[in-house]
Write a structure and sequence with these properties.
heterodimer; A: about 900 residues; alpha+beta; six-stranded antiparallel sheet; five-stranded parallel sheet; 18 helices; about 65% helix; flat; B: about 375 residues; alpha/beta; Purple Acid Phosphatase, chain A, domain 2; 2 domains; six-stranded mixed sheet; 11 helices; about 25% strand
Chain lengths: ~900, ~375
């Protein structure tokens, strides 16, 4: 098909326009938006698809808005060698006209519906709709890669070129094979559906069969076990029976040998008796010999002990006497010591007495002194009581004195000082209120020659009676100054009254006296305190006087100490035992020294006498200690000797008793059996023992001969074996019963039937599965074989298109450009510089370019056939950069060499590189 | 001994047996048929005036059959109106755990049924003494019949003695038996010297006469295609010195084996005819062997035929071991499919693989042929 011209009237925005298109080559129709580029394509489609009376919305839509006009399209084209002029008007004044010039030049025409039908028929006959749709790229569809497998002209071309017939007729077979394959296998080749289920069923049935078989194997094993147990039981029962027989034989034999053994036991018993009797006699003899020896030994021992006793008693008596002597000497020394203690006490008493007297004297003196001191205290106290002046009072007086002087001075300065002197004899009287220079009141009159200076504080009247009277009056302040003086004088006067003194001087004198008396009083009091520090001497004087037996004023009498006579210790000599005491008395005791001295009258003498008495007491105490030691020694010796004597006495008595006892025992034994019969009895018993032992030897020989000693052991062993065999038999019996019980149970369970059923089921399932397996294998074999052949054919079949795409593509992308097509002859993958990608993964620009290249390649393939159609791009290459635009432009230009390429665009610059293109500009 | 007496001899009931080739439904029907056959023995007893029935071994398939089998067996036995003597065989030996000593059996056993548990002679009816040798283990160590008549004196006057035994005869086992066999010569000697008047044997499922007085009764209902004349009970009549043994049919099932040579249309037709002529189809098991090669359309027809017959018969089994029918694709078959391109190439590849001996290619080719035909 070739388009020659298109005329649009009242079509959308186009009022009337005709576009002429070259039959060969690339035409670029350029126009701004809305000038109707796309309407050209639309008009071509509508004119063939919609009859003039169509009420379709698509027709209504092409009528210009607001214009009640009829859209009209005229198209001129070559179709299957015929030249067609086809005009159609819709909506108003509807008409259809078709004019056809046949290849042979005949001209025919149709109108109305016939024209429409004929045009449609011619179009359908000569234009493959798939190819038409594939090669016409409407606006916005430029990215979509074509899938042209169903385009008949393409198939024809490919088949013609590849020599491979298209397998279209076997497509149902392919589907059927695939369907069959998928009944058994997943696309990835795993069993599925009933086939997979049957494999699982086989596995499950195998498991059940195995379990059932195992259960039956156990049953069979039990049967074997039971058979074996039964055999073992028979065998064991036989052995047991035989064994019990031998046990019985042993029992009989034992009964026989038991008799011999009884006899031996009897002889053994008699032998024991004889042996015991012999032992008895031997013991009797030995006992008699022992008794005789004892009597002799004890008698001798008793005599020796009696001698020892006598000697010990003598020694004890002597030591007792010595003790008595020592105790007497001790008593004497005790007495002596007591006397010496008494002497000491007397001396101590005398010293005490003398010391008391001296104290009494001292206290009496002290008492006199105390009385004196107390008199002084009283005197001083009296003085002090009379004096009222104190330091403070004196100070106050001194202050008052100063105030008076001060006031007077002020007065003198503030009032008239009037000097009144009596020069004559006339009396001068004075009166008024003023003060003289001494501060005293104004004298009432003046003596002759006397003068007085008066400080007038009020009014001073000086007169000579009857002659003159002068009055001096003080100024304004005089009264107050005068009252200050008066006040000071009054305070001084009060203070002097309180002090009971005349003036300040007297007060000061009195104060000095008071200080003196206070000092004396303090000193006297200190003395008094020291004298009474040890208490009131009076009390002690009374105490001592009482003790000494004198009145307070008497001298205590000297107590006459009774002189003591010389004392001799009474020591008697103990005859025969001289003695420590004697030696001690001679060496240390000088009786002449014991003369009692006279009591001294002075304290020193008394104290010396006390020292001597004490020295003598110490000597006596030493003597006493020695005497006590000697007595203790004597007492200890006496005790020991007495004890020794008592023991000797006891031993002697015991020896005598033993002699008596032994003798008695011997006599008793003799009463039973006389000494001479003892030995004879022993000899007789010895003979009896020998006889019975001979008899025993004979019996033992019989026992040995019969083996009697072993029969019992054999019988015991045999019984033990019998018991063991019985136990084994019982155990076997139990095992057999248990096994039989199990078998009974498995019989009830019908295990064999179960196994058969399981096997039966397994066989059926397995047969079914094998059947499915055969089918599945066949399906797979067919599927794979067919698939392999189809793949090979497809490769060969797609080669013409593939090689064209690659040839075109390499002019744009270079020599490494390759593509792979899928079953629909659509490009599936592209490789560039060794990088192979699925087309979906390519950039938008690359996809668009590939889509254009593929269409140009298809167009090229079908260009030689009568069924070729124009390639129409309604706006494309919007995604390509400049470099690509250049290459793509060259490609589009070359495509025009083989057919009609129509490009509609509002961007002519995209196509400026298209060589030899015809540019048509729409206004 | 002038008075004649008739009794029945059966064996190898093997109740509880299962046949995997029958499938679940066939198995259930066949199992019931074996019981029905036992019941029919009762009918025969009535018809022939038999005085008693002896069953010489393998009454049950196992000692461990399910309870239902035992109870149904007891029910079937009740329908036999004469005394019944059962002999334990190798399948139901009187071994430990034996069914015969189980409570399930002893509690339900009909009173007129006696199980031979020892070698003591049993007077089943006046003048007839039964001796037997029950199996005590599945693995006997000597002639399993010998204990039954060892040490017996000739029967007294007027007494007929019948020996019940189970096992293979040395003469018939072909030396293949793995258990001790029955000494036929010794049996014949015992018959000859008057110790035994009849020997009833079990274990062989086909009715078999060994001598005039020594018989295998065979199973009451067929158990395998190999069996020759199964499904009978023997009516034995002893009259004076003479004996009459008459097999009476009680079985209802058939098990047949067929070998088909298939090479084309006619052979296929012959097979169809063979199937058509078989009686009692619903009670018949067919084990089918086939050899030869068929064009793909005929092969499909064969498959369809066998599948269809499988629905009609109790079971039709392709005998895998002897099933060697191959597809023989002809060029015309393939051309008829009008395949081109890869499909044609694939089919051609499979055809050549089959020709080269690749058996699995046959199935694939057949499948592809069918799919192409259906798709076309």
């Amino acid at each position: 098909m070739r388009l020659h011209s298109l005329t649009l009237r009242n079509f959308r925005g186009v009022a009337d326009r005709t576009v002429q298109l070259p039959a060969i080559g690339t035409t670029v129709v350029v126009g701004d938006n809305e000038v109707g580029k796309s309407s050209l394509v639309e008009a071509f489609t509508l004119v063939f698809d919609y009859p003039d009376d169509s009420k379709s919305k698509r027709i209504a839509d092409v009528q210009p808005v607001g214009h009640d006009v009829a859209p009209e399209v005229t198209v001129e084209l070559t179709l299957g060698g015929r030249e067609l002029t086809y005009t159609k008007r819709w909506l108003k004044n509807r008409s259809t006209e078709l004019s056809v010039v046949e290849p042979d030049g005949r001209r025919r025409s149709w109108t109305g519906r016939e024209a429409h039908n004929e045009a449609e028929r011619l179009f359908n006959e000569n234009v493959d709709p798939v190819l038409w749709q594939t090669l016409m790229v409407t606006q916005g569809q430029s990215l979509i890669l074509p899938t042209p497998a169903d385009a008949e002209p393409l198939i024809t071309a490919v088949t013609a070129e590849s020599g491979t017939p298209v397998d279209g007729a076997s497509m149902p077979l392919v589907s059927a094979v695939e369907h069959e394959y998928l009944r058994y296998w997943t696309p990835r080749g795993r069993p599925t559906g009933d086939f997979a289920k049957s494999a699982q069923a086989v596995a499950a049935a195998e498991l059940r069969s195995t379990q059932a078989a195992k259960a039956m194997e156990e049953v069979v094993a039990d049967i074997r076990r039971a058979e074996r147990l039964a055999l073992d039981l028979d065998d064991l029962s036989t052995r047991l029976a035989e064994h019990l027989k031998s046990v019985e034989e042993l029992r009989v034999r034992k009964k026989e040998t038991d008799e011999i053994l009884l006899r031996r036991d009897s002889v053994r018993a008699r032998a024991e008796t004889a042996r015991a009797r012999l032992e008895n006699h031997t013991r009797t003899r030995l006992e008699r010999e022992r008794l005789l020896a004892e009597v002799e030994r004890f008698t001798q021992s008793a005599a020796e002990l009696a001698e020892l006793k006598a000697e010990a008693e003598k020694v004890a008596k002597a030591s007792m006497e010595t003790l008595h002597a020592a105790e007497a000497a001790l008593a004497e020394v005790v007495e002596l010591k007591d006397d010496r203690r008494s002497d000491v006490q007397h001396a101590e008493q005398r010293v005490s007495e003398l010391m008391d007297r001296a104290e009494l004297d001292r206290l009496t003196g002290q008492q006199a002194e105390l009385a004196d001191v107390r008199a002084r205290i009283a005197a001083a106290s009296r003085v002090l009581d009379g004096i009222k002046v104190t330091d403070a009072l004196v100070a106050e007086l001194e202050d008052a004195r100063a105030k008076v002087v001060e006031a007077r001075a002020a007065l003198a300065a503030g009032v008239p000082d009037v000097l009144v002197r009596r020069v004559g004899a006339d009396t001068v009287s004075l009166s008024g209120t003023g003060l003289d220079g001494g501060g005293s009141a104004v004298p009432s009159e003046l003596d002759e020659g006397a003068e007085v200076s008066v400080l007038v504080s009020g009014e001073l009247h000086v007169g000579v009676p009857g002659q003159v009277e002068v009055t001096v009056r003080a100024g304004g302040e005089a009264a107050s100054l005068r009252s200050l003086v008066d006040e000071a004088v009054r305070r001084e006067t009060d203070l002097l009254k309180r002090a009971k003194v005349r003036d300040l001087q007297a007060a000061r004198e009195l104060l000095r006296k008071s200080d003196t008396a206070s000092a004396e009083l303090q000193e006297a009091r200190r003395t008094e305190r020291s004298l009474t520090a040890g208490g009131d001497p009076g009390e002690r004087i009374a105490l001592l006087s009482a003790r000494l037996g004198v009145t307070g004023d008497e001298e205590p009498e000297e107590e006459a100490a009774a002189p003591k006579g010389k004392q001799q210790p009474a020591v008697e000599n103990v005859p025969g035992q001289m003695s420590l005491f004697e030696e001690f008395a001679e060496d240390t005791f000088d009786f002449e020294d014991l003369v009692e001295p006279l009591a001294p009258d002075d304290l020193a003498g008394a104290q010396r006498a006390l020292e001597d008495a004490r020295s003598e007491l110490a000597t006596a105490e030493r003597l006493l200690a020695d005497a006590e030691f000697a007595a203790a020694q004597a007492r200890k010796a006496a005790d020991e000797d007495r004890s020794e004597a008592q023991q000797a006495r006891a031993r002697a008595e015991l020896a005598a008793e033993r002699v008596a006892a032994a003798t008695a025992e011997l006599e008793a034994a003799r009463a039973v059996l006389a000494d001479e019969d003892v030995e004879a009895a022993e000899e007789k018993a010895t003979a009896e023992v020998e006889a019975v032992l001979d008899e025993l030897t004979a019996v033992q020989e019989q026992v040995d001969a019969a083996g009697a000693d072993h029969v019992e052991g054999e019988l015991t062993d045999a019984l033990a074996v019998a018991n063991r065999l019985q136990a084994e038999r019982d155990a076997l019996r139990d095992s057999l019963r248990t096994t039989e019980g199990r078998l009974e149970q498995s019989g009830r369970d019908g295990l064999a039937t179960r196994q058969d059923a399981a096997d039966l089921e397994l066989a059926a399932i397995r047969a079914e599965h094998e059947n499915l397996q055969r089918r599945a294998d066949a399906a797979r074999r067919v599927y794979e074989t067919l698939g392999r052949h189809r793949a090979a054919a497809q490769t060969k079949y797609s080669e013409p298109l593939q090689s064209r795409i690659e040839a075109l593509g390499r002019s744009v992308y270079g020599p490494t450009f390759r593509v792979w097509l899928d079953d629909d002859l659509a490009v599936a993958e592209r490789e560039l510089d060794g990088n192979r990608l699925r087309v979906e993964a390519l950039s938008t620009g690359a996809q668009e370019q590939l889509a254009i290249i593929t269409r140009l390649a298809i167009s090229h393939l079908v260009s030689t056939t009568e069924n070729s159609v124009p390639v129409i791009f309604d706006d494309a290459l919007g995604w390509s950069d400049k470099a690509r635009l250049r290459d793509m432009g060259a490609l589009l230009g070359r495509a025009g060499d083989h057919g009609q390429v129509i490009i509609l665009t509002c961007m002519p610059e995209r196509y400026e590189y298209v060589p030899r293109a015809t540019f048509i500009k729409l206004d | 001994m002038d008075e004649s007496i008739t009794f029945l001899h059966s064996s190898d009931w093997q109740l509880g047996m299962m046949r995997r080739f029958l499938g679940p439904d066939g198995q259930a029907r066949w199992g019931q048929a074996r019981l029905d056959a036992v019941a029919r023995i009762g009918d025969v007893a009535e018809r022939t005036g038999a005085r008693f029935l002896v069953v010489t071994g393998d009454v049950f398939e196992h000692n461990q059959v399910e309870r239902q089998t035992i109870l149904r067996a007891c029910e079937a036995l009740k329908r036999i109106p004469v005394p019944v003597v059962l002999l334990p065989g190798n399948h139901d030996a009187l071994e430990p755990g034996s069914l015969w000593t189980s409570a399930q059996w002893t509690a339900h056993k009909p009173d007129h049924v006696t199980v031979v548990t020892g070698t003591t002679p049993l007077e089943i009816v006046p003048g007839v003494e039964i001796v037997g040798a029950p199996w005590r283990s599945r693995r006997p160590v000597s002639d399993p019949a010998a204990p039954g008549y060892a040490g017996l004196a000739p029967a007294e006057d007027g007494v007929r003695r019948i020996l019940l035994a189970h096992g293979q005869l040395t003469s018939l086992s072909g030396g293949m038996s793995d258990v001790p066999t029955i000494d036929q010569a010794a049996l014949e000697a015992a018959v000859a010297d008057g110790r035994l008047q009849y020997v009833g044997l079990g274990d062989r499922h086909s009715t078999t006469q060994v001598t005039e007085r020594i018989w295998f009764s065979g199973t009451q209902e067929v158990t395998a295609p190999e069996e020759n004349d199964p499904g009978n009970v023997l009516a034995v009549t002893l009259a004076g010195d003479s004996i009459t043994v008459e097999p009476q049919r009680v079985g209802a099932w058939h098990m047949v084996e067929h070998h088909a040579e298939l090479d084309g249309e006619e052979s296929l037709k012959a097979l169809e005819d063979w199937f058509a002529e078989l009686p009692d189809k619903e009670r018949t098991y067919v084990r089918l062997a086939a050899d030869g090669s068929l064009p793909l359309p005929l092969l499909s027809r064969l498959d369809a035929m066998v599948d269809a017959q499988g629905e009609v018969f109790a079971s039709v089994e392709r005998w895998a071991k002897f099933w060697t029918v191959r597809p023989a694709p002809e060029a015309a078959d393939l051309d008829a499919l009008q395949l081109s391109g890869p499909a044609r190439a694939a089919m051609e590849e499979l055809r050549q693989a089959l020709a080269g001996g690749d058996e699995s290619a046959g199935a694939a080719l057949t499948l592809m042929h069918r799919l192409a035909r259906d798709a076309g």
